[in-house]
Automatic annotation (TrEMBL):
Name the UniProt record assigns to this protein: CMP/dCMP-type deaminase domain-containing protein
SUPFAM superfamilies: Cytidine deaminase-like (SSF53927)
Domain of life: Eukaryota
Protein source organism: Basidiobolus ranarum
Pfam families for the chain: dCMP_cyt_deam_1
Domain CMP/dCMP-type deaminase: 32-148
Region (Disordered), start-end ranges: 208-227
Residue ranges with Basic and acidic residues bias: 212-227
Swiss-Prot/TrEMBL keywords: Metal-binding, Signal, Zinc
Signal sequence region: 1-19
UniProt-listed InterPro entries: APOBEC/CMP_deaminase_Zn-bd, CMP_dCMP_dom, Cytidine_deaminase-like
Length: 227
């Protein structure tokens, strides 16, 4: 009986702890700036390549001052952990080395990503204390397309984080997903339609040489946004 009571107390405590952490994630509607900065993230990703097989790009923005502090794009060909979000965080950490564990610095930043972060990237966002996350394409879209992934959403990762790391994370979903969703539709479908500016050669999408060049992001000359 004592064992059952003890297990019941532990289970109740765990339930309330997880429920409390879920409440600490606030899902909000996008504001006008979110569309602007997501478009810049999209433009940056397209500037790396129009036909990327891993079209996950990210940017980190200080909205208070209107600054895009850094960008990142999936480069797993160079390192297996360099997803768009982790690369952007690493770039910011390198550009602002004196802000490593400065919670105040990271808390006022917003991370924009073309695809919902994987569990690793979700954990990195929580560990970084980034205050706001804006997502374009949701995980379910590229999961259905056949992308290799770990099926844990950012909400599930946050459930197991303590309040210090998940407190007051604001999340906005689906911003400009009508642009990014098609990016994830062709990689595992032989008949899949290539993104705009690309054409099919075998199973791959190749950039069309006479396609219109994507708009380049407006990057100040005095700011180093990526290593």
């Amino acid at each position: 009986m004592k064992v059952l009571i003890k297990l019941g107390v532990i289970s109740s405590a765990l339930f309330f702890m997880l429920a409390r952490n879920v409440d600490l994630i606030r899902i909000e509607q996008p504001d006008e700036d979110d569309f602007k900065y997501m478009q810049r993230t999209i433009d940056y990703t397209l500037s790396i390549g129009k036909c990327l097989e891993q079209p996950f790009g990210a940017s980190i923005v200080r909205k208070r001052t209107g600054e895009v502090l850094c960008y990142g794009v999936n480069t797993v060909s160079q390192s297996p952990t360099w997803h768009g979000e982790t690369k952007a965080i690493e770039n910011c950490a390198a550009i602002y080395p004196d802000q490593g564990n400065n919670v105040t610095f990271w808390k006022e930043l917003t991370l924009y990503t073309t695809g919902e972060p994987c569990p690793m990237c979700s954990a990195a966002i929580l560990w970084s204390h980034i205050g706001r996350l804006v997502i374009s394409t949701p995980m379910e879209v590229f999961a259905k397309s056949g992308f290799e992934h770990i099926p844990l959403r950012y909400t599930q990762v946050a459930e197991h984080a303590n309040t210090e790391h998940s407190a007051n994370l604001v999340v906005v979903e689906g911003v400009l997903s009508e642009i990014t969703d098609p990016w994830f539709s062709w990689q595992f479908d032989p008949k899949g339609k290539c993104p705009h500016g690309c054409h099919k050669e075998g199973s791959k999408c190749i950039e069309t040489s006479d396609a219109e060049e994507p708009k380049k992001p407006q990057i100040p000359d005095n700011i180093k946004l990526e290593l």
